């Protein structure tokens, strides 16, 4: 470590104690920073000094995630606030802004889907996704939804009720498709509706997923009556159809509660020593409009602390109008008053947090808890299956511990062209897609007509692990990026190439590496000429096969994308004066080579950066004057396809 690099506070007790004494015993927010001045964690407390000091007491009792963080802390900062509620609001905003690595309570395992509305676009898209992306702050994510089928059916019905864009890309260049003719789409591709009017339509759809269906029905009913009074019968009929569609949408979601005018959320969890499964039911006007699911580490705190943190994270990500008037909880929250004050301030109206003990509300919480128990049982079954596979694999490979993180690598190309590689990661036997990576093969000897899987695999492994050769301290125990096992898709040749690279990097003794051959599902170890004596259907081998298949799928997907991009640009690259930037502008404007070929000189010249002279060159290229050039121009597109 360089001499000028700050050392962790744990290794400098005098500086640690001096820094802790500087922190006041008042409400506020604290920041943990590492040696690179990156924020590791942001937290809040009603007594900053006591909370921060607790991280450095009895460190051996911390769960691994917190222990790893404390080992990296080199500085502590804080912001004092007047109240705990202000500290909570400030913490939520800072976490959104900085996205610290260790501020992850809820596990994003891609199991539950979200609904995304891209409000940042003139014509917002609405789609289901498994991942909350750090995109534009204006985009909104609703969920995560437990019932994927119900979510997709709801979205499908919404697209039939309201005229929305039905395709991610236009089907035709100069006219709308059939969806416009039958009233399913307002002609977004041809901008036949203004962005302002389209936003109003999407806002109505958003109300469905915000649990405001009753409010939306009232609004549409008033608009229908007004349209009928003004003799706008066609518009009134459209509003009537939308109202009927909304009634069908909520017909089977009734929850019997006496005061069905109150909006409320009910939250409960079920946990074991490892997992905590949390369910949150959203009830609006007596109807169950959403069932959200979250997973957390059961060691993250007491049940009340976990529920408190889940509610804080959830409500910090929603719009104020989505916050209900009442929240029913299974366990008493440690800071319920502070959370209620924070939510009341955000909503602009009183929010009550209650732990019911009897009658209908208590029965509702019990129903939520039963659903959480069913989800926990399902997770335990999956965990047991994966544990059995990991134990079998560790025994077969003679590993000292269970391989928690396993990485798989594969190469994809067509006779050397567009060669790429994939890196997929399984954690505890489950895909961890946030750690997936893909590589473009840079070896100049790997080109169209000349493939070399051995050299390609060696290049990828070198690029993946060379930073560890330069900095051996990164090999310390607890590094979450260091794999317990590396699996290479291939036979002895691919494995030998990888072993040679690791030997050059002086890492071979620190890594467990195997290869899995496709034909007989045989496992090879470094230095062994014969495969291991395993069976294709035993649990450990099945786990490696799932990893291999996922690496193969991920590599092929990236290869196809790269090949498609090359084929789209190959013909445009032959036009003099048309560089990559202008090619992108053309493809953004016309979407395909076919549309560019059909465009007039005037349409081409209207594209930014093209101009009249270059537009004529592009037009002449696709419309050659001689018969010989015409034959050539017709042959090349067929080859590209």
Quick structural overview:
By secondary structure, the chain is α+β, with helices and mostly antiparallel strands. Helices cover 44% and strands 17% of the residues. The chain contains 20 helices and 18 strands.
Which properties best describe this structure?
Nucleotidyltransferase, domain 5; single chain; 641 residues; globular; 20 helices; disordered C terminus; 17% strand; GIY-YIG endonuclease; 7-stranded mixed β-sheet; alpha+beta
Write structural notes for this entry.
The chain is an alpha+beta fold and 641 residues long. Among the domains are: 9-98, GIY-YIG endonuclease, CATH 3.40.1440.10; 264-378, Nucleotidyltransferase, domain 5 (2-Layer Sandwich); 398-565, Nucleotidyltransferase, domain 5, CATH 3.30.420; 571-640, DNA polymerase, domain 1 (Orthogonal Bundle), CATH 1.10.150.20. It has helices at 13-22, 48-54, 64-72, 84-98, 148-161, 178-181, 195-209, 213-229, 233-249, 303-316, 336-347, 359-397, 453-470, 492-504, 539-570, 580-590, 593-598, 601-605, 611-622, 627-640, and strands at residues 28-33, 39-45, 75-80, 114-117, 126-129, 140-142, 264-271, 275-284, 287-297, 326-329, 352-354, 405-414, 417-427, 430-431, 437-440, 485-489, 513-517, 522-524. The strands form four sheets. Strands 12, 13, 14, 15, 16, 17 and 18 form a seven-stranded mixed β-sheet that branches. The protein has a five-stranded mixed β-sheet with strand order 9-8-7-10-11. Helix 12 (359-397) packs across helix 15 (539-570) and helix 13 (453-470) packs parallel to helix 14. The longest helix is centred in the middle third of the chain and has 39 residues, at 359-397. The relative contact order is 0.06. Residues 626-641 have low confidence and may be disordered.
